[in-house]
Each structure stands twice: as structure tokens, then as C-alpha cells.
Amino acid sequence: MAAMGGGVTQGQPHPPQLQQQQQPPPQQPPQQPAVEALNAAVQQQLNLEHVKIRAISLFKAISRILEDFDAYARTNTTPKWQDILGQYSMVNLELFNIVDEIRKVSKAFVVHPKNVNAENSTILPVMLSSKLLPEMEIDDNSKKEQLLQGLQNLPVASQIEKLKARIDMIAAACESAEKVLSDTRKAYGFGTRQGPTITPTLDKAQAAKIQEQENLLRAAVNHGEGLRVSGDQRQITPDLPMHLVDVLHVGDGMQNVVDASGMYQRNTPLQSNTLTAQNALLQVR
Predict the structure, then answer these.
(1) What CA–CA distance (Å, rounded) separates 174 from 159?
(2) How big is the CA angle at 45 (ends 59 and 125), to the nearest 5 degrees?
(3) Calpha distance 183→177 (Å, rounded)
(4) Of 15 and 246, more confident
């Protein structure tokens, strides 16, 4: 009976074997689509590798700061201000490097918002400020069409090479222009903290002489001092009439203005032409 039982047991399959026979063959997982990599030239232009390195460095710096603060909280100690300031300077430097790397790329790409909501409403002016004016956009498109007009029939590789050569030529021109500007700034002292080139100082005697002349000029303009002419410097012009000569000789004051028109000196004899004119007037009357 045991043998018969054993034979029967061997002839009947076990329930797990039945389940394995009933299960369909395993399906192969769906193949994921191949990820399209960016062009090497585009990656170089976007500075993605440098931005990635800077971002990882910033993440590590912030992680170290968080660990330090966690240790301060566990030990109930007060951190030193100098240490906190140094950590802040380190994070600020890493962030500045990232912004500097992104700034080189943001000049060549423009973001146009499509939907406005409460989240992007604060940065919407910044996004819109990078959009060109309509006339500038038309001019830019016409220049692009003019540039690509002779490259449309060429293969893609040749187009990339020609465009890269054109970009290198423009970059060389910009670099030479920047060099000329920097040389000009250095020559004239523009854009430097120390200011323009300092002229050589005057000696004490020359500076004192200039100061004396300035003081005399201020006194003459403001108070009329120093305008009187000394006696040895007076030169009476012989061509002047006698009454004007006498007035100028006697009335040399500080701010005295004498109108001597129509005045005659008492002892000055009348000229013959004056007497003749007066006699003619008396005869006519």
C-alpha cells in the first residue's frame, strides 16, 4: 500500500508544479527610449559642466554648514562669529561663481512666459525685460536669414563649422575692441580707483606766488582793494582835454566815478572854435 501510495504520489503532480505550468512565460520589460544627448558644441556653449561642478560645490558647502549647526544644537554651544562669517563668505563665493557661469549663457537665450500665475508673477518683469522690441526683433530675424541664406544647401556639419568660424571671428573682433578700450582707460586713468594720473606738485615759491595773485584778485573783485594807481605809475595822456586830465589827476579814488561832461575848469581859457560857435549863435538869434 505504501508503494502504491508512493506510486500514486509520484504520478500526481504537486500543486506548486501545476501553478508553474499554468503561469505564462515572463514578459520582457519594455525598452526605454534612448536618451538623446546634447551636441558637444552646445554643451560647451551652455557651460553645463562648469555649472554642475559649481552646484555640487555649493551643495557640499551648505551641507557642511548644516552639519555644523546640528552639532552646535546637540552640544548646546554658541558658535563663534568669525566662523559663521567665514562660512557665509564661502557660500556667497560659490553662489557668485554659479551666477557668473549662468550669466554667460543667459545673454544668448530668452525666456518668454506663456502662463501668468501667483508663482511667476514676481519674476515676470525680469522675464519680459529680456524680450526684444518689435523693430529690433525684425532686424535680428533679417540678419539671421541673411546669415543662413548661404548655408541652407550645405550639410549640417559644414553649417556648424562655418557658423563656428563666424562666431570665432566676431569673438576675436570683440576681444580686440575690449583691449583697445582697456588700453585707453589705462592711458587716461578712467575706471581706476586711484583716479587720473596725478600731476607733479608745484614748489613752495611758485605755489605762494599763485596764492598771492589769487588773494589780490579776490580782494579787487569783492572789495575793490588794490585798484588805486600809485603816483609813480600814473601816466597822463597828453591827448586828453585839459578838464579831463585834471579830473583824472585829482579824483583818483577807490570807487569814485566822476562825470566831467560839460564841466570847465575856472582858469582854463576857452578855445577859439568854441567862442566862434557861440558868436555865430548870437548873430543868428
Answers:
(1) 22
(2) 70
(3) 10
(4) 246
| Residue 192 neighbours by CB distance under 10 Å | 11
Task: Let me know if residue 234 belongs to a domain.
Answer: no
Q: Identify whether 223 is part of a domain.
A: no
More confident residue, 6 or 98: 98
Q: How far is CA 18 from the centre of its chain?
A: 81
How many domains in the chain? 1
Give domain status of residue 153, yes or no.
Answer: yes
Identify the CA nearest to 250 among candidates 240, 236, 266, 263.
Answer: 236
- Alpha helices for 12-155 (secondary structure H): 15-22, 40-46, 48-75, 81-106, 124-129, 134-148
Q: How confident is the model at residue 18 (pLDDT cuts 50, 70, 90)?
A: very low
Span 234-243, average pLDDT: 60
Would you give the distance in Å from CA 55 to the centre of its chain? 27
Rg over alpha carbons for the chain, rounded to the nearest Å, is 50
Residues 6+ apart with CB under 8 A from 106: 130
Sequence-distant (≥ 6) Cβ neighbours of residue 246 within 8 angstroms: 265
Is residue 270 helix, strand or coil? coil
Which has more confidence, 234 or 97?
A: 97
Q: Rounded to whole angstroms, what are the CA distances from 121 to 107, 111, 125, 128? A: 22, 14, 8, 11
Q: Which residue has the cell 544627448?
A: 37
In-domain check, residue 139: no
Closest listed residue to residue 243, CA positions, set 221, 225, 220, 267: 267
CA-to-CA separations, 88 to 28, 54, 198, in angstroms, rounded:
52, 16, 39
In whole angstroms, give the CA distance from residue 68 to residue 269: 113
Residue indicated by cell numbers 549663457: 105
Could you tell me the residue range of the domain that residue 152 belongs to? Answer: 147-192
Distances from the Cα of 172 to the Cα of 106, 163, 176, angstroms: 21, 14, 6
